[in-house]
Write a structure and sequence with these properties.
By secondary structure, the chain is of the alpha+beta class. It has a domain of 34 residues. The protein has 2 helices and 2 strands. The protein has a two-stranded antiparallel sheet with strand order 1-2. Helix 1 runs antiparallel to helix 2.
Length: 81
C-alpha cells in the first residue's frame, strides 16, 4: 500500500519548518528506542542513524536556506500488506 503523506509545493520557510519537525520527531523516536535493555550494537546503530539524519538535514538546510524558490515536497510511505 502506498500512502502519500505530503505532495506539493510550499514556501521555502514552511517546507523547512515541516522538515525540521519531521527530523526532530524521527530523532526523538530513535532516542526512545534506546533503553537499558538495548544491546551496545543497537545503541550504536541508532546513534549512527541519528548522526546521519542530522548531517543530511544540515546539508539540505544549507542548500535551501539561501533559496527563495518554493520547496516541492513528496513524502510517501510504502506499507507492506
Amino acid at each position: 500500500m502506498k500512502w502519500s503523506l505530503i505532495n506539493g509545493a510550499l514556501p521555502n520557510s514552511q517546507g523547512m519548518a515541516l522538515l525540521d519537525e519531521l527530523v526532530r520527531t524521527q530523532i526523538r523516536f530513535l532516542e526512545k528506542q534506546i533503553t537499558v535493555h538495548s544491546t551496545e550494537e543497537d545503541i550504536k546503530m541508532r546513534e549512527k542513524s541519528i548522526k546521519q539524519l542530522q548531517q543530511e538535514y544540515s546539508e539540505i538546510r544549507k542548500q535551501h536556506m539561501q533559496s527563495s524558490q518554493p520547496m516541492n515536497l513528496e513524502i510517501i510511505a510504502h506499507l507492506n500488506e
